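Q: Fold this one first, please.
A: Sequence and structure below.
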Amino acid sequence: MFTLVDMNSASTHAYDHARSTPPRALATEAVHAGRDDLARQGLHAPPIDLSTTYPSYDSRGEAARIDAFATDGAEPEGPPIYGRLGNPTVARFETALARLEGTESAVAFASGMAALSAVLLVRASLGLRHVVAVRPLYGCSDQLLTAGLLGSEVTWVDPAGVADALRPDTGLVLVESPANPTLAELDLRALAHACGSVPLLADNTFATPVLQRPVEQGARLVLHSATKYLGGHGDVMAGVVACDEEFAGRLRQVRFATGGILHPLAGYLLLRGLSTLPIRIRAASETAAELVRRLTADPRVARVHYPRIGGAMIAFEIHGDPHAVIADVRLITPAVSLGSVDTLIQHPASISHRIVPEPARHGAGVSDRLLRMSVGLEDIEDLWTDLNEALGRTPRGTKMPALSTRGV
């Protein structure tokens, strides 16, 4: 025997049930949110719906549901219509992430940059093209704003200058805390107050809801590169915005129009990744804290950056040549990105922030000797042996070659 499952109904019930469920601990939510309806259907693992289109003999009903979506972007009730409008598997992930971040809704995209682009397009559609932003941000976020690729105009400020930079056409204040790659932390509550009626978007990729929930400090939008910790295994690319339902509706309309949809398999992998998010973050953070202790005491290291809230990200500046460290690690993986179960290290000035103009990069604290490390789940002694040996080949006083002026 087998069970025939209405997967759209399943995801809708999961959403409704999750919204009515009493508050639960984050670790419990990570395991159960988006899955609350499965047992009633005789299922344990969430199903994957790979359909791009769905049959319907009721064209009048289809028309009414599409009209409703065009009005406010609400998820169509009833069975699915078309994959670009939404997907039941992806909806489960969105439900779960909203629960973890403490928001009404969440909208998933094909990448973090697609998610940020959708936010900018929503605000621009209202004639609010001006953005106030605080550096450092992820390098491609910086580039998207600086180049005005979506018709936006950006004013870069220090945190204390946010209120003075606001204009009648300001549609967004964008910050990242802890910031990429320096791990600088911002007072989100003070920033939200300075924003007034302008939405504060906080990129929470590094912290995840395990370490902080920006909406509790006044942010109205929370951005994640879900490629990182939410997926957690280096095998899925995605982005997501957690927000209220009204803004989510506008984001869904942009996603439908521009096609920046998340593949259902990616939605499944992200939902699976969320179930172990708290334990992964806490285990990696414990290892990271010990590495910070050892690096801080190491004479080969000039400065260590580590946020007060903790986490699995470390940034450190060395006296020697950072390129030599990248070349000499053996266990640690020299690669861009972060948040995987294995430890990654990269040189921001060469890769993740290479696209940011050098004066702006240096002004934001991203020095040419800075290394960024995403700590994984390996044994602390194995990681330290590898890092110690790589640092051993970069003696204090080593002159670092000048960086090429060409981008990568």
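Q: Good. Now the second chain.
A: Here it is, same layout.
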Amino acid sequence: MSNIEWTEATWNPIVGCSVVSPGCTNCYAMTMAARLEAMATLPQYTGTTRRTKAGPVWTGKLALAPEATLLAPLRRRKPTTYFVNSMGDLFHEDVADDWIDRVFAVMALTPQHTYQILTKRSARMRAYLTDPDLNDRLSAALGCMLDGEWIWNEGERFRPAIEKMISIFLGMESDDDGGVVYHDDPMPLPNVWLGVSAEDQRRAEERIPDLLATPAAIRFVSAEPLLGPIDFQSLNLLRYFKVENPLHPNWPRNVFDALRGKSDIHLIHNAAPDWAKLDWVIVGGESGAGARPMEDAWAESIVEQCAAAGTAVFVKQMGGPVKSRMRPIPALLMVRQFPGDGLANRPVCEEA
């Protein structure tokens, strides 16, 4: 299980990473990986960090975890929300596509679970999930599961599900009478949430547009550690949405004034909300030694923006060097919503 308040458990089929932006500076995973490496009980962590005067730092070495770890969600029947790759970045530029294929194959076989994937490599995520050959690769990854030793032991009970999922990814199968049954595209997987980390305005502008252009059941942003203010409206994110009701009570007048002032947007009634949107924003200050401060005003602004847009928001912590003595979350910011928590219908707007 996990101590991260917005998930239930962590699953690390791939470990290792490298520093890519300011949000990585005090990454807790570097310290944790160094501890696991020193314990020498999980060989996949060997060589993933190096010691420096400032503490452990990623070396850039990546490793695929043993098969037992990769297939762990298959053995858990109870529906569980997993944070995927808390000890690395699934879409790191040096992670092989076939490794990611194997991860997605497991997620496809376990629809009872919910998977939360968070990345700083938004362009790689977008490229991977918009690859026209993705379904063929995932069917091949599933096929490899049928060829391994695992399938003849504990995996035998999964054989029918694997064969069924292969046919779904290929788009068709034969029924009992020899007829052809066609399947809709299973992607994006309905149990997989995709998110990007955005610690400041620059990283938000770099990564969120990629997220919105990536097919996903749920899209979210982790503004943790929040190192500066983020103005989501300045990113023109609203232009990706359709407006179902221009007089929606949850939207302040200035939002609509801003929308009407944009030449590439028009407001419409009775539109189906099928364009990309942000479903969730996580906000949190940095913790641990050398933690950089988060100003209340930065978090307050994000909470207000989410309330105006009908987007779920989860304020995790205010930050501080010692978590046990961290400043309590002010009442104004004690908001801990999840996507689908019964928020008002999200108003949306459409590109002209």
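Q: Anything worth noting on the second one?
A: The first strand starts at residue 9 and ends at 11.
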